[in-house]
Amino acid sequence: MGGPSILEVLITYYPLFLRGLWSTLKLAFISVLLGTLLGALISMLTLSKNKIINAIGNIYITIFRGTPILVQLYIFYYFMPMVIPILNSLPKVVTIVMALVINSSSYVSEIIRGGILAVDKGQTEAARSLGMTSKNCMMKIVLPQAIKSIIPSLGNEYIMMIKETSLASTLAYNELMFVKTILSNKFLIWQPLFIISGIYLMVTLVLTYGVSLLEKRLSVSD
Amino acid sequence: MTNKDVLIKVVDLHKGFGDLKVLRNINQEIHQGEVVSIVGPSGSGKSTFLRCLNLMEIPDSGQVIFEGVDITDPSVNIDLHRRKIGMVFQHFNVFPHLTVMENITITPILELKTPKKQAEEEAMKLLKSVGLEEKANEYPRKLSGGQKQRLAIVRALAMNPDVMLFDEPTSALDPEMVKDVLDVIKALVDGGMTCVIVTHEMGFAKQVSDRVLFMDDGVIAEEGTPKQIFENPQNPRTIAFLSKVLY
Q1: Are B157 and B103 in contact (CB under 8 A)?
Q2: Whole-model pTM?
Q3: Which residue of B has its CA nearest to A133?
Q4: Could you tell me if A139 lies within 8 Å of chain B, comparing CB atoms?
Q5: In chain A, where are the structural domains located?
Q6: In a 3-state reduction of DSSP, which class is residue A14?
Q7: Do B93 and A222 touch (CB under 8 A)?
Q8: Between 1.10.3720.10, 3.30.110.30, 3.40.50.150, 3.30.43.10, what CATH number should domain A6-220 receive?
Q9: Least CB-CB distance to B79: which of A131, A140, A141?
Q10: pLDDT above 50: residue B3
Q11: Interface predicted TM-score (ipTM)
């Protein structure tokens, strides 16, 4: 463990780490945001009473939750541009985001489905017995109650995603973990790893605290 | 029995859950202004029967004809008819994320396109009628069980239903809350509302009903006036049941 100390490396290269962190936060945020929209759609499939639609949703979730995210990243990065040629003319990050969004959506759809199913069935019955349409019942009665359990879980999904974006460094995407690769060219091997770990830890601790505050806020109105 | 128009006609109704036959060949007519109580042991199919009347449960076969329309026909827009059939549940099912006022006004505003101001005025009248006007801007978590059930009743009334279905409306209440809720139902009955009431409150059923149905094992085993059913039951199953519940 020779060479400069962790502190020295941090002081010299902090702009690199900050830029990497910013990249990571953005990548995770966009992935979870788009993953949530797609996930909401998928959850509608898995909540459907139509067996075929239901099966499509379940197969989607099974595939993308049942295979490693690293494999998904590689497939989207190397294979998708061959199938969809337009991806070649777009920045490479697009395929990375696609993989992360699809992966995230499979988890988010289960979060949303769980949140919706956790709302007491009596709520739906009461609304429908009044003559409320199924759409209004979902939008005005069920979802507003489900959201309380959904939002904190989405926060946790964001925290997970922040860690998982580190895998994009293997595809030379310039996020926080990739700083290690950059600095290894300068023969700095171990210091960046500890600095990066520290940064991830700080970010996840802060966000975890944020989610727990949010959870408390949301449970107040119960 | 009041001899007015038939409001709900049930024809050859069957309903099962898996292998369990819950309702077998039910035929009934509920008349305009009539108050019908349904009594019987747990699991006899009373609630399922009630829930078939507004298609909360979809019958396996048979028809439910409400105001001349067969609402079991899949091409019927059931939402339109449910607006004319109020339902009150054992567990109140008030909307916890809405204020007492919003609980009442949300469906008229959304589905009947009632102007908000008008819906709120009508809701306020209803709340006054059940002594909850001071709770209008509270959330249901601040209400007692009895208050929640009174809210649930006026929430249904806000849709101006032609009939009210009560599914064991007092079974989940603390004993001291029961009277408040029964008083509200009594007032409705006195106002001429058609009511179908599944209940374990035999005294209440006896007092308010025009007709009592005794259900057992998925069939209507006996029916008649409260006097006939409670004082001179004929069916051995009715006799056995009443001997257990009447103290």
Answers
A1: no
A2: 0.85
A3: B79
A4: no
A5: 6-220
A6: helix
A7: no
A8: 1.10.3720.10
A9: A131
A10: no
A11: 0.92
